[in-house]
Amino acid sequence: MEYMSQEGYDKLVAELHQLECVELPQVREAIAEARDKGDLSENFEYHAAKREQSRLLGRIRFKQRVLENARVIDMSRLATDKVQLLSKVEMTNLANNQRMTYTIASPHEANLREGKISIKSPIAEALLNKRAGDVVTVRVPAGILKLRIESITL
To answer: Is residue 3 within 8 Å of residue 73, measured between CB atoms?
Structure first.
């Protein structure tokens, strides 16, 4: 079961709709055009379009499975006393006093540019169920980080 925000769920539904209703028909049309050009055994366009169709169908099946197992979290029922999924956590790196803010998100919503880290990442796993003021030690590929949780919001 995958828990996610309403925003993440809606985004996934929109991506699936785009794949099924726009991209897949385009690929099927490309296959039909390539098939009309004759000998399929040496037709590069046909084989490329078939590979693209296979890739698209795989992505569609994956997104369908994610949506089948998705559960949207009711934001009004979340508390801000400890770190959990969809919490926005402001913390300080104690090594260099640099502040950072991340939202703990489902793996399908994670996007570092948007400040969303996966709940399965080392930092998020270390932060889970901790409270404001707690200091956590995290082993990351670059070494060990000591982080102090400054605040938790939604």
So the answer is: yes
b (16+ CB within 10 A) / e for 66-100: bbeebeebeeeeeeeeebbbbbbbebbeeeeeeee
CA 135 – CA 62 distance, rounded (Å)? 38
| Residues above pLDDT 90, as percent of the chain | 68
Cβ proximity of 138 and 122 under 8 Å: yes
Euclidean distance between the first and the last CA atom of the chain, given in angstroms as a whole number: 22
> Rounded distance, CA 5 to CA 10, Å?
9
Output the pTM of the full model. 0.76
Total residue count of the chain as it appears in this document: 154
Say how many C-beta atoms besides its own lie within 10 A of residue 64's C-beta.
14
Kindly state the average pLDDT of the residues 109-133: 92
